[in-house]
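To close the chapter, one final illustration. This time we ask the reader to focus less on the individual chains and more on the assembly as a whole: which components sit near each other, and how the overall shape emerges from the parts.
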Amino acid sequence: MKTINLINVTTGIILGAIGFLFAISSLYEKKLRAFYTAIAFAAIILIVWFGYYHFLNFSVILLSIPPAFAILAVVLFFAPDGKISEIEISGSGDRVDERDVMFAREEYEPGDSKYDIYYSAKPQFKEIDDKIRKLPRLLSPGGKYYDPIRSGYIISIFRSVKNLLNEVDGEISADRQAVDAAEVTVSIKKAILEMGAGDVGIARLNQNYVYSHVGRGPEKWGSEIVNSHKYAVIFTLEMDYYHVEGAPGLFMTEESAARYLQGALISVEIARYIRNLGYPARAHISGSNYQIMLPPVAYDAGLGELGRLGYNISPRLGARVRLGAVTTDLPLIADKPKNFGVQDFCRKCLKCAVNCPSDAIPYGDKTDERGVLKWQLNIEKCIRYWRILGTDCGLCMKVCPYSHPPTLFHNIIRKAIPRSATARWISIHGDDIFYGRKAKF
Ligand code: SF4
Ligand code: SF4
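The assembled structure is written out below.
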């Protein structure tokens, strides 16, 4: 009897303490709903637990039920149960033409030759693109969140990115250094992390992920893109949690712009460093200078899975990341894709779809998009909404349960989700209870 009393009291105290610690952690995240819910949870646990113990303190069997239930829940939360789904890639699709990318299409203006050439070849996009073009451009007067001072600051960051467009490639040193692939891989990864990246990986460059034709940037529009580099060095940049919490609006766009500039500086530096070793290397920077599609390359490098919201979800930083990359022929050691339960989580969660104000994120099943089975974002609806706001939206990134900051509690949940369907079920429903199903903005 003494032992069961001790177990009962100890488990009650542990559960109550977990509730209070989670409440404190929620305060740090500035999540008041989660704070009050955690306090209520801890109080209810303590009242029920010790009330039960006090009034029914007569049977070992009855007293064993609450701790047994708690222990079973913990075991189910962490115990491996079944395989997680992987992203299905048949690789049978054509390469994507960068001229079809929404950000390229936004640049075609009536009266210029690109507009005439593009829409006579792709008339199916003309009507919707013309409607989008009638709305104010991002960061321009007329957008809902336009602010001449702050918008001007963001525009100046994008200008700095643009100034790097001609720095992405350059002369290769004739004095080629003999390198050890393992050593140089470590050295490049270390340099990128020291420059502020969140994570870094190496992928063998799959030619299916190289755009077919130039759609933006200083190179000739419509020219064929040839990039036969063997590897892509790719990295994530963490989007600041509190900036993302400010979505939708200028906070979000400020953060995106700052990360794009940081990504551009890192990739230009790394590409230059590799060329100085005597190997070809090209940086791929934001705005108008990508030759490769970063999300699938990031997946190949083990940096994250594509989620329902259309972004890569990183194992450590969730959806709050931007990507940067360098392609090269420098001998490197490639990483492998990491699957950590995102496909199974997204199938049930749907929180981004519920919160998307433009209805751009699908509720239904994945579709085959050029040989990759994925949830296809309706990019026209998304960008149309951005232009109404005059800024990035980012609500999907903000509400995604993977976007929580890497605190002890969220990290424990991140560890459990890839292993256990119970953990995924509890996390999806727990997220709604503690943080709300619908975001307020
Ligand atoms: S909000 Fe949910 S469904 Fe959407 S990407 Fe994040 S985990 Fe997946
Ligand atoms: S950025 Fe906004 S509009 Fe676009 S998909 Fe996400 S939630 Fe929807």
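The pocket of iron/sulfur cluster (ligand 1) is lined by residues 307-309, 319, 345-346, 349-352, 399-402 (CB under 6 Å). The chain has 17 helices and eight strands. With these observations in hand, you are ready for the problems at the end of the chapter.
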